[in-house]
């Protein structure tokens, strides 16, 4: 995938899926309406200010807690283009990739950037550059088969492509 | 030598032997889904024009999170779930009256030692209490598994926890797991299969073992597993129809981490807001005023929990400033609790007894107002989990919750033993 560039929103350790999207909003049928509650418990101003293409930088264990895929889904819906964290909780990691959100694991991530910094990420190389501070860091590259899912735009689109290829071959 | 996780994954792939770190495409014995089927999985199916479910007999579906429907949106989710079940011929539809999935699935015989089980719920790790490997997945993975019959997994490293007893009489699984999460940290076992060993585990009831495995996810665990013994096999008797072999770890199995903990002097634990890894001995925060007390959920709505609560509440009254809500985890438990007179004791004490549902644990009802304090025998005290983001949630075992409901403040349950 191409390199992406965006502004950073900083979060701490153990950002759980309940604070990303509280359980009581999961049955809202309209995605935009559901996503209007993103991060409501801890940063109610987030949805008003987030811009398409923004990037989240978190600490350890990002996305812990419930298996709700709505957590990465609302982040995607509000326009988050990528998530960088020191580590990801397991189920969130799978769910985000399935939805086509690129992830980068980076040691010490929450201490390397300031809120609002612009960063450029090359996912093929696993390299993130901080354009404000003129620094560059090497993160953990996604395994190839997961990178392919991201490139396809998520697991659903990857399966769609596979079905299409089967039909045409 | 292989761990329990490695052995179970090897048995569910074409490979003779698998090792931690390896990516495998595995056959799954049971896939459990609740409202998430109607919320997202069904949409994915529609989007992909998928025509069938590969193994409809391996799929178990029930409704438990928003039951009975409390809004039109929820009613639509429930209807979508029922329609999907019919359209694709799902064999095991349990409706919305059986109770909370993680209690009902083992009760109905869908869990056996050595099984590989997934569910659209993070607390699916509960079934490890019966020696199964079980883990939570999201809705896209669930849809693709339904369609293709297999799912990819990274075979996890294993974390060995050895618990030494004897277990004090007032201690149950909840106190133990809160202590462990606090010791290990919220991500201390991330991506790993947590095996619980030691003489203390053997002393515990199936109910307490389920509570421990249930909360393995709160330390990041992909699964929590306990080797089956006589107590397990007796519980499973007359429930499981599937053949099984008990799988145990080799004595020299490779573990990525190990922890030994002696719990013979463990005090009742209370996890402070806003993390299950914030546990302290109850004495440290004794006297903290509470507004609501809750006993229930997939963590603490079992018979052992209700019996202990009834023992404390019998011939006593819930403090006048407190509301105590009790939710039996399943219909089976509810019926047995009625037979034993527990429900009478609860109602006499002034508690509100609800039908089996996940509701209160995730704030669907029994929600907290800003500034209110809840003491909850459930699994998560994250910000906003049970209502207002300005509410405070403490987690504890049912004994501590029952004792505290009588006093109106966090109370050491040992004075009732």
Major β-sheet profile of chain B? 7 strands, mixed
What is the level 1 CATH name of chain A?
Alpha Beta
Helical stretch tally of chain B:
14
For CATH, the homologous superfamily of chain A is named as: Aconitase, domain 4
Instruction: Determine the mean pLDDT of chain B.
Output: 97
The tally of structural domains of chain A comes to 1
Class per helix and strand makeup of chain B: alpha/beta
**Major β-sheet of chain A, in short?**
7 strands, mixed
Average pLDDT of chain A: 95
How many structural domains does the protein architecture of chain B include? Answer: 2
The CATH topology label of the largest domain in chain B is Aconitase, domain 3
Strand order, largest beta sheet of chain A? 4-3-2-1-5-6-7
Number of strands of chain A: 7
Distance between the termini of chain B: 44 Å
Tell me the CATH architecture of the largest domain in chain B: 2-Layer Sandwich
Q: How many angstroms does the end-to-end distance of chain A come to?
A: 26 Å
Secondary-structure element sequence of chain A?
A: EHHHEHEHEEEEHH
What low-confidence regions of chain B span 5 or more consecutive residues with pLDDT below 50?
Answer: none
Reading off the top of the CATH hierarchy, the class of the largest domain in chain B is best stated as Alpha Beta
β-strand percent of chain A reads: 15-25%
């Amino acid at each position: 995938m191409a390199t992406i560039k965006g502004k950073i929103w900083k979060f701490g350790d153990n950002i759980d899926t309940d604070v990303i999207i509280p359980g009581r909003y999961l049955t809202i049928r309209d995605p935009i309406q559901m996503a209007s509650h993103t991060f409501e418990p801890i940063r109610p101003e987030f949805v008003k200010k987030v811009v398409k293409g923004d990037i989240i930088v978190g600490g350890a264990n990002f996305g812990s807690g419930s298996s709700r895929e709505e957590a990465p889904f609302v982040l995607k819906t509000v326009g988050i283009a990528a998530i960088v964290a020191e580590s990801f909780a397991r189920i969130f990691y799978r769910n985000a990739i399935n939805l086509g959100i690129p992830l980068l694991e980076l040691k010490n991530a929450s201490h390397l950037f300031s809120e609002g910094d612009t960063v450029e990420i090359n996912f093929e190389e696993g390299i993130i550059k901080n354009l404000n501070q003129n620094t560059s860091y090497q993160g953990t590259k996604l395994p190839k088969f997961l990178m392919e899912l991201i490139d396809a735009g998520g697991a659903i689109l990857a399966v769609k492509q596979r079905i299409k290829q089967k039909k045409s071959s | 030598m292989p761990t329990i996780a490695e052995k179970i994954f090897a048995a569910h792939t074409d490979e003779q032997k698998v090792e931690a770190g390896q990516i495998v495409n595995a056959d799954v014995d049971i896939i459990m889904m609740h409202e998430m089927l109607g919320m997202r999985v069904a949409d994915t199916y529609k989007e992909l024009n998928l025509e069938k479910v590969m193994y409809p007999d391996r799929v178990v579906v029930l409704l438990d999170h928003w039951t009975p429907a409390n809004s039109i949106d929820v009613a639509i989710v429930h209807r979508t779930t029922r329609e999907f079940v019919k359209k694709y011929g799902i064999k095991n539809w349990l409706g919305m009256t059986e109770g909370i999935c993680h209690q009902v699935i083992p009760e109905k015989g869908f869990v056996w030692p050595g099984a590989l089980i997934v569910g659209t719920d993070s607390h699916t790790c509960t079934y490890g209490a019966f020696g199964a490997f079980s883990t939570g997945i999201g809705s896209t993975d669930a849809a693709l598994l339904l369609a293709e019959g297999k799912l990819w997994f990274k075979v996890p490293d294993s974390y060995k926890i050895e618990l030494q007893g004897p277990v004090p009489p007032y201690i149950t699984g909840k106190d133990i797991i809160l202590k462990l999460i606090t010791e290990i940290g919220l991500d201390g076992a991330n991506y790993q299969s947590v095996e619980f060993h030691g003489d203390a585990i053997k002393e515990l009831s199936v109910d307490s073992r389920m509570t421990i495995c249930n909360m393995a996810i709160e330390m990041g665990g992909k699964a929590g597993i306990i080797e089956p013994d006589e107590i397990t096999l007796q519980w499973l008797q007359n429930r499981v129809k599937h053949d099984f072999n008990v799988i145990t770890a080799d004595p020299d199995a490779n573990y990525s981490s190990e922890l030994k903990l002696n719990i013979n002097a463990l005090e009742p634990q209370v996890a402070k807001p806003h993390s299950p890894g914030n546990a302290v001995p109850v004495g440290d925060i004794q006297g903290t005023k509470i507004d609501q007390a809750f006993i229930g959920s997939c963590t603490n709505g079992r018979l052992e929990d209700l019996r202990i609560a009834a023992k404390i509440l019998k011939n006593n009254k819930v403090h006048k400033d407190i509301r105590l809500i009790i939710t039996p985890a399943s219909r089976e438990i509810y019926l047995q609790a009625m037979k034993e007179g527990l429900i009478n004791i609860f109602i006499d004490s002034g508690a509100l007894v609800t039908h089996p549902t996940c509701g209160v644990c995730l704030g669907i009802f029994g929600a907290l107002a800003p500034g209110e304090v809840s003491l909850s025998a459930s699994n998560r005290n994250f910000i906003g989990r049970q209502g207002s983001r300005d509410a405070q949630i403490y987690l504890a075992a049912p004994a501590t919750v029952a004792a505290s409901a009588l006093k109106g403040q966090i109370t050491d349950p040992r004075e009732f033993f």
